[in-house]
From TrEMBL:
Residues 9-133 form the Glycosyltransferase 2-like domain. Keywords: Glycosyltransferase, Transferase. It comes from the Bacteria. PANTHER family: GLYCOSYLTRANSFERASE (PTHR22916), GLYCOSYLTRANSFERASE EPSH-RELATED (PTHR22916:SF51). The lineage of its organism: Bacteria, Bacillati, Actinomycetota, Actinomycetes, Bifidobacteriales. This is Glycosyl transferase. It holds the Pfam family Glycos_transf_2. One of its GO terms (molecular function) is glycosyltransferase activity.
């Protein structure tokens, strides 16, 4: 970053988000750091979202709107990356809220530590919590404690069970990050030559390995800087089809192989592989419209998982299974909490 006030490009994929879009964009426009390029990518929305984007662009020169045919979130993210001119890149989902200090504090962390990526903490919120969240997100706060992570790919793969993060304390929690792109600030060059694979549900899982492998250093900011809106009927929480599970198996398999090739044990992807192929089988059994093709796909996925797991040492396989058991228990509790959110 050659200047003290670098331009930060914020990419917001927008699709049928008229209900919450204003909360999201207003939180970006209200950032304490002002040198922003705000890219609203209208991914063929069929509601008023596209018009709302144009309205924002007409009133703030920092906002650029790109209207495109619907191609999915990966396509929208790629369009944003292609149009971004900032020294740093950030992403925000179209129904989430960024804390007022999000960009400022993540940028300060990058500049202080010379890291490649800065990440903050986030809270999950229900729709009923939006008013108090908007108020809280507008309140200035001090920069949180910084923790450096010099092995991002290993941290991503090994630190993912909430139970063990609690037992491990603050240093372990700081090493946790998932494949989500929001509540991050990236140096632009990290994305050179990298684009999301389009036409898939799990585009972020596919990107995690290649992105974190080229990331030399991550800095964690111990501060809530993002609010993730939970809706039980969203794609993340309700999309449960054979195609969805198969895509998750395939994405985890790609990342599993990639991670192994870099000498890192893919603990997280082991869980993703085994959980998705199991869910795929259970879903097909419960479906009254089960198809032969889908069943064969599940058999192929099972064989793929078996062959990949066989590449692990007995010791690593045992640790993978142990972490997967812990994570499955946590996910049952997590799903109940999400569906109980109002």
């Amino acid at each position: 970053m050659p200047v003290s006030k670098p331009l930060v490009s914020i990419i917001v994929p927008v699709y049928n988000a008229e209900r919450y879009l204003r909360h999201c964009v207003d939180s970006i426009l209200g950032q304490s750091y002002r040198n922003l390029q705000i890219l609203l990518i209208d991914d063929g929305a069929t509601d008023a979202s596209g018009d709302m984007c144009d309205e924002y662009a007409a009133h703030d020169s920092r906002v650029t709107v790109i209207h495109k045919h619907n191609g999915g979130i990966a396509s929208a993210q790629n369009a944003g990356l292609d149009a971004a001119t900032g020294d740093c890149i950030a992403f925000c989902d179209n129904d989430d809220i960024m804390h007022n200090n999000n960009v400022e504090h993540l940028l300060m962390a990058l500049q202080k530590t010379h890291a490649d990526m800065a990440k903050g903490r986030w809270n999950q919120i229900g729709v009923s919590e939006l008013p108090v969240t908007i108020e809280s997100a507008s309140q200035a706060q001090s920069l949180g404690a910084l923790t450096l992570i010099d092995d991002p790919l290993n941290a991503y793969q090994s630190v993912f069970c909430k139970t063990l993060r609690i037992l491990g304390g603050a240093k372990t929690e700081a090493r946790y990050f998932n494949e989500a792109n929001w509540c991050r600030l990236y140096r632009r060059e990290l994305w050179d030559g990298l684009r999301f694979k389009e036409g898939h549900y799990a585009q972020d899982i596919r990107m995690a390995g290649p992105l974190y492998a080229r990331t030399k250093r991550v800095v964690d900011v111990n501060e809530v800087l993002y609010y993730w809106l939970q809706e039980p009927d969203s794609v993340t929480h309700s999309q449960r089809t054979p195609a969805f599970w198969h895509d998750n198996v395939t994405a985890a398999a790609e990342n599993f192989e990639f991670t192994l090739s870099h000498g890192v044990v893919p603990y997280r992807n082991y869980f993703g592989l085994t959980a998705s192929v199991r869910d795929e089988k259970l879903g097909l059994r419960e479906s009254s419209r089960q198809q032969i093709h889908a069943s064969q796909t599940n058999n192929d996925d099972y064989d793929k998982v078996r062959l990949l797991v066989a590449r692990l040492s007995h010791r690593d396989r045992l640790k993978c299974r142990t972490l997967a058991i812990i994570r499955r228990g946590e996910n049952k509790i997590y799903d109940q909490l999400i569906h109980a959110m109002q």
